[in-house]
Amino acid sequence: MALPYLEAVLCFMILMYIFETYLDIRQYRALRLPTLPKPLVGVISGEKFERSRAYSLDKSKFHFIHEAVTILMDTTILYYRVLPWFWKKSGELATNVGLNAENEIIHTLAFLAGVMIWSQITDLPFSLYSTFVIEAKHGFNKQTIWLFIRDMIKGILLSILLGPPIVAAIIIIVQNGGPYLAIYLWGFMFALSLLMMTIYPIVIAPLFNKFTPLPEGVLREKIEKLAASLNFPLKKLFVVDGSTRSSHSNAYMYGFFKNKRIVLYDTLIQQCSNEDEIVSVIAHELGHWKLNHTVYSFVAVQLLMFLQFGGYTLVRNSKDLFESFGFEDQPVIIGLIIFQHTIIPVQHLLSFCLNLVSRAFEFQADAFAKNLGYAPQLRAALVKLQEENLSAMNTDPWYSAYHYSHPPLVERLSALEDPDSKKEN
């Protein structure tokens, strides 16, 4: 008799849904508060606060519905053994079209193709409503329905192009890994992550956005001067046309070793008319580089990935585990799916811990920019970006502690003003 692994997974999924819904309710109550937090009074305009409040409440209501539908679908699929039924039907379909379903790679690709189709169908209504109702209502959506469809098709084609060789490699490694399976799996995923980090900004990202060099001028000169002063090996400085899809703004950097690149969203340049405010945002990002936050984060992710693969090797041959989920055989991809469900408690705990570390890194990067003399400009930029992005002004402390990877604006402004708090390490 199979042990009740499935029942335990379902129980925890429901408990986590109840807990996270409780946090969502706390956040919803905070969002409904009619006044700004005291530290933001006189800093954030009343008009921006009301717009932010309306936007956040609309997103919160949508989130309640989305999460309810998601937990209902996920628990139904597991409880009624839809996965083993779908695995069987995908094998039959592969056979009917003349493929060899006895080949696990072919069977797995047929299964994943069906899963992708199902995901596209179930996610599409939510994506459309979020983009063309909520984001459009509050002035953020800039893309047409045709651009939305084109991006979706490109994403599907990329999955079809990149997915099969990756899936095939994983299956072959698991089938032949032996006692060193965890090491082989981790080595493959490590190499794959490096490859994707290399080709994504060069090959994949340009399929969706246009990247152009930042024009010569005061802003470019100041960014290059800042990078040089920190010995940051800046090779290219781009502007991305984020405004073709959204009014939200951002900036980021990427690249290995001596080939670093910085990307500014055109919306960031539009929203921060003062060049020094934009430079302060770059100073913050360079703080992450100078303080090795990117390296620490990458190492942490790789360590967690290795530990997960180690755990997978311990349970992948558990017949009871597969039987509990309704499977008679033990396919590699199904083993990975089941394992991800069984470690949900650990994943939530690790996510919370990573958020704690991320928030600490954000404070340190702010302190780094402050020590470079950009405290007033960074403070002004943070306020402006908070206003322009209509980010939540009132946040519940429990909700933000559990969900936020970045500290709330109130905390960041307080740290910038306090000479003895949140110093960089």
Describe the protein.
With 425 residues, this protein is mainly alpha-helical. The protein has a domain of 252 residues. It is built from 15 helices and 4 strands. Strands 1-2-4-3 form a 4-stranded mixed β-sheet. Strand 3 and strand 4 form a beta hairpin. Helix 3 crosses helix 4, helix 7 runs parallel beside helix 9 and helix 13 crosses helix 15. The longest helix has 45 residues. It is globular and about 65 Å long.
Keywords:
425 residues, mainly alpha, 4-stranded mixed sheet, 4 strands, 71% helix, globular
**Unreliable runs:** none
Radius of gyration: 24 Å
Count up the helices.
15
The pLDDT mean sits at 90
Distance between the termini: 55 Å
* Percent range for β-strand residues: under 5%
- Topology pattern, helix = H, strand = E: HHHHHHEHEEEHHHHHHHH
Bulk shape: globular
Counting helices, strands and paired strands, the structural category is: mainly alpha
Got a strand count?
4
The major pleated sheet works out as: 4 strands, mixed
Helix content: over 70%
- Describe the oligomeric state of these chains in a short phrase: single chain
Strand order of the largest sheet: 1-2-4-3
Quick recap of the structure?
It contains 15 helices and four strands.
Walk me through the topology.
Blueprint (H helix, E strand, L loop, with lengths): L4 H27 L14 H34 L2 H15 L7 H34 L7 H32 L4 H24 L6 E3 L4 H12 L4 E7 L10 E4 L5 E6 H6 L3 H16 L2 H23 L3 H6 L7 H11 L1 H45 L8 H7 L5 H9 L8
Parallel strand pairs: 2-4
Antiparallel strand pairs: 1-2, 3-4
Helix pairs in contact: 1-2, 1-14, 2-4, 3-4, 4-5, 5-6, 6-10, 7-9, 9-13, 13-15
InterPro entries: CAXX_Prtase_1, Peptidase_M48, Peptidase_M48_N
Catalytic activity: Hydrolyzes the peptide bond -P2-(S-farnesyl or geranylgeranyl)C-P1'-P2'-P3'-COOH where P1' and P2' are amino acids with aliphatic side chains and P3' is any C-terminal residue
EC number: 3.4.24.84
